[in-house]
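$ fold --in a.seq
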Amino acid sequence: MIIEEALNNKNILFFSVQTFNLEKEIIKKLEFLGANVDYYDERPSNSNFTKGIIRLKRSLLQLQINKYYNKILSDISDKKYDFLFVNKGEVVPEFFLEKIQKAQPQCEFIFYTWDSFANNKNALNILKYFHKKFSFDSDDAVKYGLGFRPLFYLDFYKDIDLISNVEIKNDLLFLGTAHSDRYKISNSIADWCEKTHLKSYCYYFMQGRLVYFYKKLFDRTFKEFDYKKLSFTSLKGEDLFKLYQKSKVVLDINHPGQKGLTMRTFETIGAKRKMITTNAEVKKYKFYNPNNILIIDRENIKLNKEFFESDYSEVDIDLYERMSLKGWLSCLFVNSEPNIWIQGIN
């Protein structure tokens, strides 16, 4: 069954944290494919303060979280859903899932996480309620018996090269949330670029000033972060489009404790740009090509100018389409894909 048939006139209750407007793109695509979507932010508030407290000590907001989800139960009491779709599961409480399950036994529960369980303990507590469960992390998928499904790129990345005569201004582009050793690594590579007569552009996003100051006090990796270089406003789609369009190579620095491939990996493939990454796991994937992807050791960075000078090699068209947002949704809602990405992972 194709996804258009599976989702035509189906009702979906969708929960996701707000992440660089990705939740809006997911909703838009689900509706384009024929579904009716009711969306709720997982968090009771999207303020920087609330996001910071949830990350640091979620229990302080438990009463507010419970009130929020009870209000949702009241809002949807007269609705019937074909699917409950939870993306990440950072906040959704167990009592809420239990009540939906009892009230709507026909509803299929689908779970996906683009975070490792080491960073998202609540997700582990709610897994038992879902019929279909997926992780972007191959190790977590094996450890917890989940389906393995990497991330996706948004449709507009396909169009980046359709506009001709756009000048490449950045030999290297780095976009990312400020964490761990990202500042140290990106600065080191930016310095190398300057010495090699290559241009670089770095953008560091921070979830909120509260999170920054907490990490500045208790996380030694934040001692080196220059506050003036941080941005507390996330980039919009049109900003990403322009930056990718004017850049040749994209730098990807994964969190040291996370093996799943980042969204940046798939955006880069969607945009047909070359990538430098600290994540050696990418070598296991079928789309890996050393001409397009340079793997570096975060403790001993070695670069070469030839990588920047060679042309991009096209990825297999079937894999390229499967990496799209539609391909991702097809896997979650219609057919799982054993052995498509890494041999031996279901």
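$ fold --in b.seq
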Amino acid sequence: MPLVDVSPGVTLAYESVGDPGDPAVLLVVGFGAQLLSWHEDFCRALADRGRYVIRYDNRDCGLSTKFDDHPVDVGRFVTAVSSGDLPSALAMVPYRLQDMAADGLGLLTALGIERAHVVGASMGGMIAQTMAITQPDRVLTLTSMMSSTGENAYGQSSPEAQAVLFAPKPADRAGYIAAADRDLVWASKRYRDPAALRELAAHSYDRAYYPAGVGRQLGAMVLSGSRADALQELQVPTLVIHGLDDTLIDPSGGQRTADLVPGARLLLIPDMGHDRPRELWPEIIDAVAAHTS
């Protein structure tokens, strides 16, 4: 697994597939997810469309740098935010989405890539948006998938999905894999695939079980604020993809993103939840390939 230093104190693990001479597509993963969440077959199918595809672990996840010196108790953090005690919440979290965006751009720099198409899903969409906002000259196109704008009025989770998101997972391997079935609450209803969820959970657990990072990543999302004003000024060609079955980030999050970004194209996909079912890969890959052409 290649590792590369992207800034002082931060090393990212990444994988690539395709011809480095083809246009680069940087895939950004979501909250608590390893690069495995961009399935290898999905990456290869996109590479077969003439793209150099790069997937990586965000900081505090997978094989990338961990910020163990800054433990965050998710319960205490949520309580502080809910009660309006922002000074306490801010003091708990050592970085923001802007830092995570800088990591991804630093990876491109380390790989000798000046500009890339950036595709982010869920929290990865928020990071990708931030890349485009902070360094638009590095982002050829933006694809924001199953994500939102940081505004509280849009993209909210259902109570059931939120409960699953914040519920601690078992620490033992068998329990962790079995708990993956909970994610069906936000998955595509038509293409429910518990076996695929368990397979991803098993691979993730074996590769890098690290629950301590989720509190810091959650804090980065919550405390980075709204991107609405900046998105209204964005001049990067933007595609927004959202599943109509999504209960973790309501489709209003995607709709709002597309409404704000000038000239953005919105693709709402029926039967897609907060996941990428294999059955929908052709439609998603076609859309990304067309947008990045």
